[in-house]
Amino acid sequence: MIARLAIIGVGLIGGSFARALRAAGAVGEVIGCGRSVANLERALDLGVVDRFTTDPAEAVAGADLVFLAVPLGSTRGILEAVRGALDERAIVTDGGSVKGSVVADVRAAFGRMPPNFVPGHPIAGTEHSGVEASFPELYRHRRVILTPLAETDPQALALVQRLWEMCGAEVSLMEVDHHDEILAATSHLPHLLAFGLVDALARMRENDEIFRYAAGGFRDFTRIASSSPVMWRDICLANAPAVGAMLQRFASELNELADTIHDGDGERLWEIFSRAKAARDRFLADGGRD
Amino acid sequence: MIARLAIIGVGLIGGSFARALRAAGAVGEVIGCGRSVANLERALDLGVVDRFTTDPAEAVAGADLVFLAVPLGSTRGILEAVRGALDERAIVTDGGSVKGSVVADVRAAFGRMPPNFVPGHPIAGTEHSGVEASFPELYRHRRVILTPLAETDPQALALVQRLWEMCGAEVSLMEVDHHDEILAATSHLPHLLAFGLVDALARMRENDEIFRYAAGGFRDFTRIASSSPVMWRDICLANAPAVGAMLQRFASELNELADTIHDGDGERLWEIFSRAKAARDRFLADGGRD
């Protein structure tokens, strides 16, 4: 289906996309591009890509589909590097965790929203990075959100949707801003809480002891604090308004909870915890998974 | 070693203690006590106890060791129910997640701190409850903190320590207040963050959508929000000062993080996330586990 696929950023996300499409028999040649020659050589050794280059323009030459899987902060630069080299019919899609900033970068780099750019976000990942971490099943039974614009060509959209479905994912469509608000709540806030908790504990006086007695959920809770600091810095900066608002809202909730505890209001505490337990149990019953 | 063991509260904690000691050949007869006859009958069927009663005084009659594994809010009532029925040489220990409140309850019920009461806290558990959830390996490679007082008999302490070690646990000793502060940071705060997050998301307008797109760590993060609301209500009330202080401190951290994001300070964000990742990776390398 895709004679030539260019992956810009052959890490967990980009590498897994290439592997999944290869396994599905959906791609011919895969060209990898990134900044780390060592990672690209590994990608070649692993058969994730057929050849590689550190030059984005070279990578996209003649490509039918281009997948940008780079940190959000690098998106604008990559778009400017490739804009003159893309085939007219080439479809470009991405995997960025924030859509508003990517769309803004595309408009800035191209002077408009090209009909063949399909903004996307696979809601999947592990806390590991690099092509070594990639695997073809990453997207199976996961959700992918595409955020087409008014300008987006329906056939380009349909193709990208089909490709993600071939990776085993379930695709939904959403408005850009709505995506960013939802993800601020479901993903960005939890990650920031995990980072914040680990950081706060690491800076406490008794931090050796604290980490020695850290069990009872601490490991699970903070697994996501082992995620890439670069990726999360970029997500915070790219989704600053929504993320900032969620953080402040949650901080207020915590202060209210502190007051409830201070007041000794056992009834209210039980309500909050019961409601949370019920919501989570329902989430699991609906097949919710990581 | 223990001819007759009485377990008050035959749930995950109490049931697992009985199972572990039985497997280690350390106990003769096990008597179970609780409020739910159905749970006690199940405990009998499963062989976790040899007989049961809903009367705590009856349960402890002739017992060499008594293990209190009841919600913190029930501790005082149980102590008052058993104080007249305990053998003079009987050793009493508990599994409560907060030690200050338990010690206060003991002093109030007995008019003093009896030398044979050994306050304890096994740092172990799953989000499940009841004797069905119990298993003998729960405490293997886990930490147990004992908080002896000046009045505590060294031989009673040594016995309780040895029993926990026979369950496979590693035992440490700590001052009561210090225990409560450390646990506020390592356990109580993470649980409250998980409860708070799930509750906040459940109350948002778009909660259906939010839970549909909740992946990327959400499940792990919120696993502990499926814990017992009664247990956690009691922990908050029992450890109110330390927990309240941690919540307020963390709320300030979140507001600072929101400001950092608002200011677009990518450098600082990267520092926070990198420090957290390093701390967590170090925690894992030291063999930290859930």
UniProtKB/TrEMBL annotation, chains A, B:
Gene3D superfamilies to which the protein is assigned, alphabetical: 6-phosphogluconate dehydrogenase C-terminal like domain (1.10.3660.10), NAD(P)-binding Rossmann-like Domain (3.40.50.720)
Transmembrane feature ranges: none
A Pfam family this chain is assigned to: PDH_N
Pathway: Amino-acid biosynthesis; L-tyrosine biosynthesis; (4-hydroxyphenyl)pyruvate from prephenate (NAD(+) route): step 1/1
Source species, domain of life: Bacteria
PROSITE patterns, A to Z: PDH_ADH
Catalytic activity, as annotated: prephenate + NAD(+) = 3-(4-hydroxyphenyl)pyruvate + CO2 + NADH
A Gene Ontology BP annotation from the UniProt entry: tyrosine biosynthetic process
PANTHER family from the UniProt entry: PREPHENATE DEHYDROGENASE, PREPHENATE DEHYDROGENASE [NADP(+)]
Protein's name according to its UniProt entry: prephenate dehydrogenase
